[in-house]
Amino acid sequence: MPQEVKVVIHNYKKLKETEFDITGGSVFFMQGPNEVGKTSFVNLLKAIMEVKDDTVNPVTYEEKEGYAVGTIPGADGKQYQFRYDFNIDGKKKFTFIGPDNKSVKSVTDMRAIFNYTHFTVEEFYNWSMTAAGRQKQKNILLMLLSDSERLEVAQIEGKVNSTSGEIFLQRQTVNRDISYLEGVIEKGGLNSVQKDTLSKKKAIDELYDEFVNQKKIIDEYVQNNSTHAIRLKSAQEARDTAVSNYTTTVTQLDTSIADIEKQIRELTESLGAKKELLKTTENAFLEKKVILDKAVTDLEADYDVKKMEEYMLVLNGDGTEKNPGINARINAGKAKKDEIIKLETISEQFNKNKEDLAVKQKQADEYTEKIDTLRKRKESIISNSDNIPHDYQIGDDYITVDGIPFVETDLSKSHAVKAIAKLMMKVNKAPIMLMGDAENLGYTVLNELQEEAEKSGKIMIFAEHVRDLEEIKLVCYDELDHGPAPKKPNTNLF
Fold this sequence. Notes:
The chain has 13 helices and 13 strands. The chain is an alpha+beta fold and 494 residues long.
């Protein structure tokens, strides 16, 4: 028995006194030019199935009240009588009577008659153009899952979603570490010269130690001879001082003697004393000079000036590249040893980076495996759900149809329309489907939609702009010419 949809409308927006009978067909068009009530009719049916009307003032202009009555099928396939009263003061009242002639009391029970979720083909298609809209599409599909399936999918998304999934973010962090380590390894390895230097570490260490030992021996000799030289210099200075003092004293005494001789008669005793003092001073000087001469001679004999010069030449070199001296060689050796320590550090860090990279790559592979496993599980849940069309899947940021992302750039409009219609049939169990605008839908798509509607026992209602009409008109597509008939297959081929 075909579903019966009859609606009598009194003063609803553009529809003043209108009656529609949507019975005996599967696809209908509400046709007419602009501003004749096509949208008003669709909004009224939507209000009845949602048991709420978002229209601010549904009453026809200059009227005070209105109503809509009729018969409409519910999600259980049974026929329900309805009445919707509204007035200019904003009061609205819905009344439903079931097939048992009992009135449905609560709004919750009224809405359960249809369990209606409204969206049109065009709305669903346009959602694909924004991130918020694509999330709405996902929510529509998720709503069709059982509570346990929806919970499991949500848990999986919480782990593998490419924007916020826990495991995905962990893998992202590991992949950043991998990129960093790969860059460090690529730039941080030793070049051929550095590797050659590092390979000569033992020879460089031995040569450096040899120069250090040589320097130690020379430094000890120079240190000892430097002390000897100081003593020699001190003795020489003491001797020179004695000679200077003696000369000065002799000069003074000679002067005194000259004066005494001039006054010989007065200073005879003084002259004798002075002569005695001169002799004593001379003797003392001669004795001291002998001692000092011996000290100087001894020190000169012990101090090998030539050998000292040779050692200093060995230490400091002669300023040429061929003989830079031990000190310069030791400094160069220390620089080379410091370079080797640095190269060893670089080499050790390089090897550690390679080890860390291997660990991170293993972690990334494990995360990828977990993500793949969980995503396959999510795909399996969606694919095995009886409530979701088999060609739909839920991705991270969008849904897919037949493996094609449901985005404007990837999915054709005709493909999308057919897919949305299938989804609408799953979402809304009640027979009536408010499809939206029929513009740009060709015969091929409409024929397929009609076939799906007939198979599923659905009634699809489209709004269609027809400029040549003067008033609103309900047309059943089933009764129209559907364009060229599809070619029949050649059954003689096999």
